[in-house]
Amino acid sequence: MKPADPEHPIPIDAPTRAARPPVVCYPVAHLPDPSLAALRAARAGWTKVSETLVPPRDARCFEVPAGHFVRIISVDGPQVGDLNLWSAHDLTERFFSGKTRALHGTHLSTGDRLWSCLPHLRPMATITEDTLDWYGFDADGGSVHDVIGTRCDPYTHALLSHGGQYHHCCHSNLTRALADRTGLAVPEAEPHVHDVLNVFMCTGFLKGTGQYFMKASPVRPGDFLELFAEIDLLGALSACPGGDCSSEHSSDAAACHPLRVEVFRPADSPAGWEPSPRNSYDKSHGRPLTPR
Ligand SMILES: [Zn+2]
C-alpha cells in the first residue's frame, strides 16, 4: 500500500502530472456483442437438466454444455460463492479473472463476459441476469461479484495466523471438488484451481490505502446470478467459510449456508448464436510458425 509518509519530496509540477485524465485501458466497444436480448429470449420454455446443492464450507463441480444456462442461487441465508470455470475438454483453458477485470471492471454484472486464460482468451460465459444489479457501488466503493479477490486459501491463512491449519478455505474446497470430479489426486488437481469470480461477495478497496476490503453481502435467499455457457464448461463452486463475508473467513466462525446450482437447456439455441470461436491471434509471437 502507499506510504502515509513518503520518503521522496513532492515535485513542483506534481499537480500538473496528476491532473492528466484517465484513459480506459481496454475500450470494450469493439468486443463481440453478447446479443443479450437473443440469449434471454432463449430462456422461454427451457428445461432444468441438473441441480447441485453446494454444502456450506465445501464445493461441488457441475457441467454446463455450450448453449445452456446456469444459475447460482442463494438459499437459506446470505452466502458468498467462489466460482471456477474450465473448458470441459481441457483443464488448461480456465477462467482468467485478471483479464476479465481489465476488460469489464472490478465487479461484474449483466452483459459482461467471463474470459478464458491465454493462449485462449475467448468468452467462456456471458452473464444474462443478476438480481443484485441494483446494488451498484455503495458509499464505501463496494460492489458485488468481484474479480479482484483471489479465493481464501490455507497458505495465506498459515502466513497470517503463524502456521494455522484450516482445511475448508475455498481453495481447498475447490481442489477436493475437482479431484472428486476428475479422478485426479489432490496434488494434481490443486494447480488447476485458479482465481475466482466472487459470486455475491461485496468488496472494494479502502480509500487512501487501497487495501482490499469485504463487507456483509447484500444477497438474500432467492437472489441469483445467471450465466450462459459460450463453450462446454466444467464449473466448481465453493460456499465460502466466510458465509456472507461480514467478519472473517478461513475459519468455522461465520454462519454459513448452502448455494444451489441449476443448469437449464433452452428449447432452441439463441437466434444467431454459435459457440465461442478460437482467438484469432496467430500465436507466432513474431517468429516464423514452424510446422509440427
Ligand atoms: Zn472463501
Residue-averaged pLDDT, rounded?
A: 95
Largest sheet: 7 strands, antiparallel
Tell me the helix content: 10-25%
The proportion of residues in beta strands is 25-35%
Shape descriptor reads globular
Sequence of secondary-structure elements: HHEEEEEHEEEHHHEEEEE
Q: Find the count of extended strands (DSSP E, 2+ residues).
A: 13
Our measurement of the CA-to-CA distance between the termini, rounded to an integer number of angstroms, reads: 47 Å
Coarse structural class = alpha+beta
Bound molecule kinds, no repeats: zinc ion
Total domain units: 1
**Spans where pLDDT lies below 50 across 5 or more residues:** none
The total count of helices amounts to 6
Kindly provide the radius of gyration, computed on alpha-carbon positions and rounded to a whole number of angstroms: 20 Å
Pfam families: DUF1989 (PF09347)
Protein name: Urea carboxylase-associated family protein
Domain DUF1989: 53-234
Region (Disordered): 267-292
List the defining traits of the structure above.
292 residues; alpha+beta; 7-stranded antiparallel β-sheet; 6-stranded antiparallel β-sheet; 6 helices; globular; binds zinc ion
